[in-house]
Design goal:
Elements: E1 6-8, E2 12-13, E3 18-24, E4 48-55, E5 58-64, E6 74-80, E7 85-93, E8 98-107
Parallel strand pairs: 2-8
Antiparallel strand pairs: 1-3, 3-6, 4-5, 4-7, 7-8
Length: 108
């Protein structure tokens, strides 16, 4: 699976403020349609097929990815700051392996 993902969440926000969240994870996203140049055999598909973000245990966003998504998937989205808590991010690939990250935010 991929290396440690990069996540950018503001450390603090005002109550009701719209915040931007950005994530980036390194992954080749092999589609399963390319052939190995030496053997001529298809390279097996291996993509990140789901990404999810939750805040304090409540799911905010869930994305299903397909082979047409570029390598190193990047997500940027907005959320409303309502309370202090933790954002949890999870990426899952075709083999069922997961990578997760967390980031805390304080709302004043």
């Amino acid at each position: 699976m991929a290396k440690k993902p990069r996540v950018k969440v503001p450390k603090s926000a005002k109550k009701g403020e719209q915040i931007q969240i950005k994530t980036l994870i390194s992954h080749k996203m092999e589609t399963g349609t390319r052939k190995n140049k030496k053997t001529g055999k298809l390279i097996p598909r291996m993509i990140i097929n789901t990404f999810s973000c939750s805040f304090n245990g409540k799911e905010l966003l869930k994305a299903t990815l397909h082979p047409s998504v570029a390598a190193n998937p990047y997500f940027a989205f907005y959320a409303k700051a309502t309370e202090s808590g933790t954002f949890d991010f999870v990426w899952t690939d075709d083999a069922g392996k997961t990578v997760s990250a967390s980031s805390k935010m304080t709302v004043a």
